[in-house]
């Protein structure tokens, strides 16, 4: 989960884990972004909408980046790139000396991810299809910047045609999005299990007294199933090692 600390005097956020740099010129009218914003709030990350800034204070923006462990660019796809707001923010904040020019690499080893929303289905983003380009190819400039800064690049998280999703699909998207923001990288089975166990523990703590028994029973069952799966994996590993010998 994201870690947020506050100064006793000013309540200013001074330690963060995941920083979501969001760009959307009409974010209040975007059903998709409002849905993701709620998911980000539940995941306890920092949601930073660049178009809402009265002015770009380069020092403050760079401080936010330095404090984050994971930095996520989030935006709708406009002509195979982010909206102008993110481009403007990049030009002013991601200066050459800050990224790599002075050889200090302040963003080195931080994780970098991209959440991109699109009105087109994913099947259109491939060679020979309607767009004739993959989303990964379109995101290459942003990853190039992260690469210069010696960041750890995460897989792309795409949200195609949100308004066509069923309620079940939206709930699955919410979980996947929250995992993308707060789960350990890479997206391994062990890291997924740890994330779900942590979320379940937090959920049980918030239950009323009369529901605590049922909640703890569910948590104990989850932990037991996880341990059983680990034993199976260990057994399979031993068998594989024996075959290799």
The DSSP helix count reads 9
Structural Rg: 21 Å
Mean pLDDT: 86
Give a quick account of the main beta sheet: strands, pairing sense, barrel closure: 6 strands, parallel
Structural class: alpha/beta
Count of β-strands: 8
Q: Could you list the spans in which at least 5 consecutive residues all have pLDDT below 50?
A: 1-16
Proportion of residues in β-strands? 5-15%
Overall helicity:
40-55%
Name the shape in a single word: globular
Distance between the termini: 41 Å
Order of helices and strands: EEEHEHEHHEHHEEHHH
Please provide a brief summary of the model.
Helices cover 49% and strands 14% of the residues.
Main attributes of the structure:
alpha/beta; globular; 14% strand; 9 helices; 245 residues; 8 strands; single chain; 49% helix
């Amino acid at each position: 989960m994201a870690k947020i600390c506050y100064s006793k005097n000013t309540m200013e956020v001074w330690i963060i884990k995941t920083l979501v740099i969001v760009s959307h010129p009409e974010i209040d009218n975007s059903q998709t972004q409002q849905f993701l914003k709620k998911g980000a709030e539940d995941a306890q990350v920092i949601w930073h909408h660049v178009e809402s800034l009265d002015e770009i204070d380069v020092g403050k923006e760079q401080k936010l980046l330095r404090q984050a462990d994971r930095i996520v660019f989030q935006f709708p796809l406009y002509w195979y790139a982010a909206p102008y707001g993110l481009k403007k923010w990049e030009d002013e904040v991601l200066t050459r000396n800050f990224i790599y020019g002075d050889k200090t690499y302040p963003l080195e080893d931080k994780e970098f991810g991209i959440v991109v929303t699109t009105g087109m289905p994913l099947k259109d983003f491939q060679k020979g299809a309607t767009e004739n380009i993959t989303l990964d190819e379109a995101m290459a400039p942003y990853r190039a910047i992260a690469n210069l800064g010696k960041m750890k690049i995460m897989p792309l998280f795409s949200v195609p045609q949100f308004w066509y999703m069923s309620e079940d699909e939206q709930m699955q998207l919410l979980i996947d999005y929250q995992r993308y923001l707060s789960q350990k990288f890479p997206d391994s089975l062990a890291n997924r299990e740890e994330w779900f166990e942590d979320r379940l523990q937090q959920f049980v703590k918030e239950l009323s007294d009369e529901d605590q028994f049922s909640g703890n029973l569910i948590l104990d069952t989850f932990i037991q199933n996880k341990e059983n799966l680990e034993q199976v994996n260990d057994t399979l590993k031993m068998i594989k090692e024996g075959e290799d010998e």
